[in-house]
Amino acid sequence: xxxxxxxxxxxxxxxxxxxxxxxxxxxxxxxxxxxxxxxxxxxxxxxxxxxxxxxxxxxxxxxxxxxxxxxxxxxxxxxxxxxxxxxxxxxxxxxxxxxxxxxxxxxxxxxxxxxxxxxxxxxxxxxxxxxxxxxxxxxxxxxxxxxxxxxxxxxxxxxxxxxxxxxxxxxxxxxxxxxxxxxxxxxxxxxxxxxxxxx
Length: 199
Prior knowledge:
This protein has 9 helices and 7 strands, in the order βαβααββααββαααβα. The chain is an alpha/beta fold. Strands 2-5-1-6-7 form a 5-stranded parallel β-sheet, with helices on both faces. Helix 1 crosses helix 9 (181-198) and helix 2 (30-38) crosses helix 5.
């Protein structure tokens, strides 16, 4: 079973993914893959530097290895739709290759792949079932700001995604995360049980 887990920024996708993992699902976090595997890739670093110049590089370490300054990249891509689409064209295929290879290596497992831009990237047909985590817009924005972003940055991130209502409408199931952590967990437990009965 291959489940796509999506939702708006600040809605609680990672919390839901952790609950699925605790229930024995194999979980892939595409944001983690971006941070830990794609952005450090020398080819990706080189593409970004050629596009935006050395201002997006953070040279560190004894060997002076160039890394991407994620904050500077974010400033560029969330302020300009053209640059964001170009960057997604660089990042998304590389992320997809990585998580798909892991799923293919264990085809009999129950997989949950956390993909924030699942619908935006047109990936919905590649999953057996899609779950969307939602929350009230006021709660959502407050959570994003609590991560250290300004109101303006939070607004940029939210505006860069498909409207949450569209995601909720297109998903097979919705987890609503306005309440307590325990309430979200109880929804995941119920949904996981129902999904496993369908196998």
